[in-house]
UniProtKB/TrEMBL annotation:
<dbReference type="InterPro" id="IPR050557">
    <property type="entry name" value="RTX_toxin/Mannuronan_C5-epim"/>
</dbReference>
<dbReference type="GO" id="GO:0005509">
    <property type="term" value="F:calcium ion binding"/>
</dbReference>
<dbReference type="GO" id="GO:0005576">
    <property type="term" value="C:extracellular region"/>
</dbReference>
<feature type="region of interest" description="Disordered">
    <location>
        <begin position="202"/>
        <end position="225"/>
    </location>
</feature>
<dbReference type="Pfam" id="PF00353">
    <property type="entry name" value="HemolysinCabind"/>
</dbReference>
<dbReference type="InterPro" id="IPR001343">
    <property type="entry name" value="Hemolysn_Ca-bd"/>
</dbReference>
<dbReference type="InterPro" id="IPR028992">
    <property type="entry name" value="Hedgehog/Intein_dom"/>
</dbReference>
<dbReference type="InterPro" id="IPR036844">
    <property type="entry name" value="Hint_dom_sf"/>
</dbReference>
<dbReference type="InterPro" id="IPR011049">
    <property type="entry name" value="Serralysin-like_metalloprot_C"/>
</dbReference>
<keyword id="KW-0964">Secreted</keyword>
<feature type="domain" description="Hedgehog/Intein (Hint)">
    <location>
        <begin position="781"/>
        <end position="918"/>
    </location>
</feature>
<dbReference type="Pfam" id="PF13403">
    <property type="entry name" value="Hint_2"/>
</dbReference>
<dbReference type="InterPro" id="IPR018511">
    <property type="entry name" value="Hemolysin-typ_Ca-bd_CS"/>
</dbReference>
<protein>
    <recommendedName>
        <fullName>Hedgehog/Intein (Hint) domain-containing protein</fullName>
    </recommendedName>
</protein>
């Protein structure tokens, strides 16, 4: 046998017996009875001019392509029968009864026509009938080949192969006893596996594929195929066409991962279902797992069916929507933005999704295990839904749902039902959430980010928490609390409330400033629109109404509340509140504790509530009710209805410009301003400095007549009454008084401190006229005329102030408080026995401190200034230089101002005390010259002032007083120089 080495350019070799060898790799063409191909990747092929001969062809270590063609050929992929050097060979027997040996490597063997012996050898070998001119029937489980027939398979014996390829016709292909891959190719094939786990491919055509036992993989390919997995855990791929896929026994799946368009999967309770979209409409049976493709797929399980199969759905790529069944499913959203839906559940569900790990759902839809979902749609029941740390869309659907975003900029939808929607689990979540309550009455909470919260229809409660949030109540009666940060708060339709109840400090909110620039505290930067109710914090707030009617609730704390131009409802809540109705017909309720209430313009309704309140009606026909405890009521102008309520209440007309007429028998009073009031429930009465008329009634009454020539008629009574005649020539008429000898006493105190005890007995008409009492033992603290007081409208001379004016205060938390009374008295100093007790004290500008006072200040000797935390009477500061007493004056007019309680105001820049009611109100006649002796110090000895004053009172001998005097003395050169300048 000769050996010829081929070259690299392709050789033509003609010999009967030769070996084509060498190491070059050209494509050699060999003709002869016996030849061997050496080198790798060679081709042995026939001469078309020859037609016979039984050839023996040997490959070598490479991947050979060998054609035996005509004759009964023997072809080896290896170099010889015993060689183990074969590569991945392709062997074609051609016509004749051939013998093909694949040898080592993954070989492809096609016997061609004739009864062939086909041995795959070592490796993964494939027997192919792809070039058969007709359909074949091949059963790899019958080793003698007796079951093989038709086309090129007729008489073939096949062994040691792992794969089978059919023809382009309708084949019948059966796998072997070992795991086999069968590809039917074109044509309507019938393919069957054995019980060993086969891979069965239908190819083109309408194929019927049966896996039988084992864990098989079935792929129908193109055409309308029928796939039956049989026993075992099978994987079925329908491919193109309308396929029927039956997994059979075991845990089977259908796989649409190769589909690029959207599919819709609908599964029943027992593993059956349909799949539409993609490349056809498939009918499923016996399936437990469905794998989607890269499109936006929809998966629906049998929710609401008891005993349903527990499915596994895998969405793959795309934005999928997945709804499991009732059997406890495993649901994989896959890549992209996927939805988990429980819209079909018959009851509530609990769902939690997470990033990068498994999560869960349980409830009416079974106990599901979840992976890779970004969005959730709840059921029609009361669901509990928790998002992940990434951005989610969470929709509760109908029902009273609880939804928590957990983190990451979520969109949360409550849907119908009374929902609780939270954008976070901690207040430090800074992502920006959008939360929509939907229909019904919802509660919404933002987080630390800049959130958007929409109440929707229904009565919603919305909390922005921290961050610059946007809160929209929309329809319904909503409560909106922006929390900290510059928020936009829009109530929308309905009666909506903005609340600062969660604030950790006092707020200032002014609804009359549309852009929110006047708001401070937790309200700093807030813009408030379409709001009907304003609720303050638990601290001392300043709350101001706007151009439309609103309700303002001060909540707890010492609040200052000012209504708007129209009629408002103003509620003080707990705390020492100051409330001014301003314009319109207001309804004002002071609430608990001691409040100061001024109605302002319009026909107002004022209720003091619990506590010792001060009520001032203002102009208009007002209704004032003191409520519980000891209240002080000022009707002011208009035809008012005045009710004292429980406790010892005072009806005060001292500020009226003219005399008043009070008749307790008829329950009416002429108010000195042209109006007629209806009165009841009062125990104490303070009349004016004018000529008043008073008719008593039942009970323990006390009347303070003030100045003027007053007339009192004291009718039959059943209590112990007190009358303070005050100044002027007063008349007391006892004609109707018929009290018993021992059970009724009436005390009449004259202006000079004299006391008359009148033993009440029946008898003839008695007339008592009292006048000319010496007021030596009375003392007051006053401002001299012209002193300017700091008010809400700037500095105003004290003589121009009126009850109801808001003045700047330095005690408590309310920066502005209304005056309840302004007194005036004119003193003829020429008639004073001791001028040091009545003449004004002049405090030069800058005498107390730099710029304090900033103009000369004149006060009565006993008037106290607030220095170093103490009240210091002006007489104790006289130094003959910068603080002097004007003993040379002949006359002085004093004024004083009263708040609801003793306090501090700012006069000429200095902190000074207000009027302290110690029974001396009658000294302020508001009209006449008092030509009587005045002692402004005597009253301080009774102890009432020191006990109830707004600060401790400093007295002579206290070391602190000496330090204050020393500090003032050190300023004398500076102050004196300025006086000379």
């Amino acid at each position: 046998m000769a050996t010829v080495s081929g070259s690299a350019i392709g050789d033509y070799i003609d010999h009967e017996s030769l070996i084509a060898g060498g190491t070059t790799s050209g494509n050699d063409t060999v003709y002869g009875d016996r030849y061997t191909i050496g080198s790798s990747e060679q081709i042995a092929e026939y001469n078309p001019g020859l037609s016979g001969g039984g050839d023996s062809i040997y490959g070598n270590a490479g991947a050979d392509l060998i054609y035996g063609q005509y004759g009964n050929d023997t072809i080896y992929g290896d170099a010889d029968i015993t060689s183990l050097l074969g590569g991945n060979d392709t062997l074609y027997g051609g016509a004749g009864n051939d013998e093909l040996h694949g040898g080592e490597g993954n070989d492809l063997l096609e016997g061609g026509a004739g009864a062939d012996l086909i041995f795959g050898g070592v490796g993964f070998d494939t027997v192919s009938y792809a070039f058969s001119n007709g359909a074949v029937t091949v059963d790899l489980s019958v080793t003698n080949g007796s079951a093989n027939r038709g086309g090129d398979a007729q008489g073939d014996t096949i062994s040691e192969t792992e794969a089978l390829v059919g023809s382009a016709f309708g084949d019948s292909l059966v796998g072997g006893t070992a795991s086999t891959t069968i590809d039917g190719g074109a044509g309507d094939d019938r393919i069957s596996g054995k019980d060993v786990g086969d891979r069965l491919l239908g190819g083109d055509g309408n194929d019927t594929i049966e896996g039988n036992g084992g864990n098989d993989t079935l792929d129908g390919g193109a055409g309308n195929d029928s796939l039956l997995g049989g026993a075992g855990d099978d994987s079925l791929v329908g491919g193109i066409g309308n396929d029927t896929l039956d997994g059979g026994a075991g845990n089977d799946r259908v796989d649409y991962s190769a589909v690029g368009s959207a599919i819709t999967v609908t599964m029943g309770a027992t593993g059956g279902g349909t799949v539409t979209g993609g490349a056809g409409t498939d009918s499923l049976a016996g399936i437990e797992t469905v794998i989607g493709g890269s499109g936006n797929d929809v998966f629906t399980g049998p929710i609401g069916t008891a005993g349903a199969v527990a499915y596994t759905f895998d969405g793959g790529g795309g934005n999928d929507t997945m709804s499991g069944g009732s059997g406890g499913d495993r649901l994989f959203g896959g890549a992209d933005n996927d939805w988990l839906s429980y819209a079909g559940a018959t009851g509530p569900v609990t769902v939690a999704i997470a990033v990068g790990t498994s999560s869960f759902a349980f409830g009416a839809a079974g106990n599901d295990t979840l992976f890779g979902f970004e969005n959730v749609l709840g059921s029609g029941g009361a669901d509990s839904i928790r998002g992940s740390t990434s951005a989610n869309t969470l929709d509760g659907g109908a029902g009273a749902d609880t939804i928590v975003g957990f983190g990451g900029g979520d969109w949360i939808l409550g849907g119908a039902g009374n929902d609780s929607l939270l954008g976070r689990t901690t207040s430090t979540d800074t992502a920006n959430d959008t939360i929509d309550g939907g229909a019904d009455n919802d509660a919404l909470w933002g987080a630390a980010g800049d959130d958007s919260l929409l109440g929707g229809a229904g009565d919603d409660t919305i909390y922005g928490e921290s961050g610059s949030d946007r809160l929209y109540g929309n329809d319904g009666k909503d409560l909106l609390d922006g929390g900290s940060g510059a928020d936009l708060i829009v109530g929308g339709l309905g009666i909506d409330s903005v609340s600062y109840g969660t604030s950790f400090g006092a707020v200032v909110v002014n609804l009359s400033v549309a852009n929110g620039s006047a708001n401070t505290g937790a309200a700093l930067g807030d813009t408030i629109q379409d709001i009907e109710v304003l609720v303050g914090s638990g601290y001392g707030d300043t709350l101001v109404g706007g151009a439309v009617s609103v309700t303002i609730d001060g909540n707890a704390g010492q609040d200052s509340i000012l209504g708007g131009a129209l009629g408002d409802l103003l509620l003080g809540g707990s705390g020492l509140d100051t409330i001014h109705g301003n314009g319109g017909a207001d309804t004002i309720d002071g609430g608990a504790e001691n409040d100061s209430i001024l109605g302002g313009d319009g026909n107002d309704s004022l209720l003091g509530g619990i506590g010792s309140d001060v009520l001032i009606g203002g102009s208009g026909n007002d209704t004032l009710d003191g409520g519980a405890d000891d209240d002080r009521v000022f009707g002011s102008a208009g035809n008012d209805s005045l009710l004292g309520g429980a406790g010892t209440d005072t009806l005060d007309y001292a500020g009226a410009p003219g005399g008043v007429s009070v008749n307790l028998d008829t329950g009416t009073a002429g108010d000195g301003r042209g109006g007629t009031d209806r009165i009841s429930g009062f125990e104490r009465f303070v009349l004016t400095a004018g000529n008043d008329t008073f008719v008593s009634g039942a009970g323990n009454d006390s009347v303070d007549l003030g100045g003027g020539n007053d007339s009192l008629r004291w009718d039959a009574g059943d209590g112990n009454d007190t009358i303070n005649l005050g100044l002027g020539n007063d008349t007391l008429d006892l004609e109707g008084w018929t009290g018993g000898a021992n059970d009724l006493w009436s005390t009449v105190a004259g202006a000079g401190g004299a006391t008359l005890f009148i033993n009440g007995r029946s008898g003839g008409p008695d007339t008592l006229t009292v006048f000319g009492f010496d007021p030596t033992n009375d003392a007051v603290t006053c401002f001299a005329e012209g002193t300017r007081i700091a008010t809400a409208r700037g500095e105003v001379p004290v003589e121009q102030l009126r009850a109801g004016d808001l003045v700047v205060t330095l005690h408590g938390s309310a920066p502005l408080r209304p005056l309840v009374w302004v007194g005036r008295t004119q003193v003829d100093l020429s008639r004073q026995r001791d001028l040091t007790k009545a003449a004004p004290v002049l405090i030069r500008a800058g005498a107390l401190a730099e710029g304090v006072p900033f103009r000369d200040l004149r006060v009565s000797p006993e008037h106290a200034l607030f220095l170093d935390g103490r009240l210091v009477p002006a007489r104790l500061l006289v130094n003959g230089s910068t603080i002097v007493q004007e003993l040379w004056r002949r006359e002085v007019t004093y004024f004083h101002v009263e708040l609801e309680q003793h306090g501090l105001v700012v006069s000429e820049g200095a902190a000074t005390e207000t009027y302290f009611d110690d029974g001396n109100r009658h000294l302020f006649d508001n009209a006449k010259v008092v030509a009587l002796a005045m002692d402004f110090a005597a009253m301080r000895g009774n102890g009432r002032y020191a006990a109830a004053a707004c600060a401790p009172v400093l007295e002579e001998g206290d070391p602190l007083l000496e330090r204050i005097r020393g500090r003032i003395a050190a300023r004398i050169p500076v102050t004196a120089d300025r006086m000379q300048a």
